[in-house]
Specification:
By secondary structure, the protein is mainly beta. It has one domain: Porin (Beta Barrel). Helices cover 13% and strands 66% of the residues. The chain has a ten-stranded antiparallel β-barrel with strand order 1-2-3-4-5-6-7-8-9-10.
């Protein structure tokens, strides 16, 4: 966890300096989330856009009483959607490649709705939520529902909340 948070801080600081120097290139988002699935899941993520349509990121999840997982991914914006691929290092099985599709749309003023699907040979993960910009272009809070449909274990689902900072 400490390594990922340190990596996130370094990338965020680098992204902040680059964004000012190159007018929006290297936009960065970092955040923390909690989901009630299983015994609870704490997560931290960072996502950097080296160019406006491409995002690369990493996420660390700690499943209470189970273990840790990490994702590393890249996604490309096509219209209002992102399509991408990545690698998930599971807490209870070998790492697997995954594909993803995500969409986001403005609902009203500072309120956005989003949804996503992640698919690997081990699982399907569905997520939908709302994000509210608290401070325009800086902080947002999100509320979401996530459903984990994993092979060989009970399916898990839960409501989550998160706080994100945009550099």
């Amino acid at each position: 966890m400490k390594k990922i948070l340190c990596m996130a801080a370094v990338m965020a600081l680098a992204g902040t300096g680059m964004a000012g120097a190159f007018g929006g290139i290297m936009d960065t988002e970092a955040g923390y989330g909690y989901n009630s699935a299983a015994d609870g899941i704490h997560s931290a993520h960072i996502e950097v856009k080296p160019i406006p349509k491409l995002a690369v990121g990493a996420e660390y999840r700690h499943w209470n009483n189970r273990g840790n997982e990490t994702d590393v991914y890249a996604k490309y914006k096509v219209g209002h959607f992102y399509v991408g691929a990545g690698n998930r290092n599971y807490y209870d099985r070998d790492a697997r490649m995954f594909g993803l599709i995500e969409g986001k749309a403005n609902v009203l003023g500072p309120l956005d709705a989003y949804a996503g699907l992640l698919v690997s040979s081990e699982e399907r993960q569905y997520k939908a939520g709302l994000a509210l910009n608290l401070v325009p272009t800086s902080f947002d809070i999100d509320v979401n529902y996530t459903y984990y449909d994993r092979d060989d274990v009970d399916n898990e689902s839960g409501v989550g909340v998160g706080l994100n900072y945009h550099f």
